[in-house]
Write a structure and sequence with these properties.
Layout (H helix, E strand, L loop, with lengths): L1 H25 L2 H28 L1
């Protein structure tokens, strides 16, 4: 389960980066903001998984 969540976090971060970059390239502030939000979700998920790993060991 943890690997699945870690992979999901990485995917959210990557998708967010793509959206942010695309939004910046075409001047779409909404898409850029959506990308930053997606990256933040991925960062939060990754932090949660790292915290769980610390307490497992």
């Amino acid at each position: 389960m943890a690997r699945n969540q870690k992979a999901k976090a990485k995917a959210e971060q990557a998708k967010g980066k793509v959206e942010e970059t695309a939004g910046r390239a075409v001047g779409n502030e909404s898409l850029e903001a959506k990308g930053r939000l997606e990256q933040a979700r991925g960062d939060a998920r990754q932090a949660k998984e790292k915290t769980k790993d610390v307490f497992k060991h």
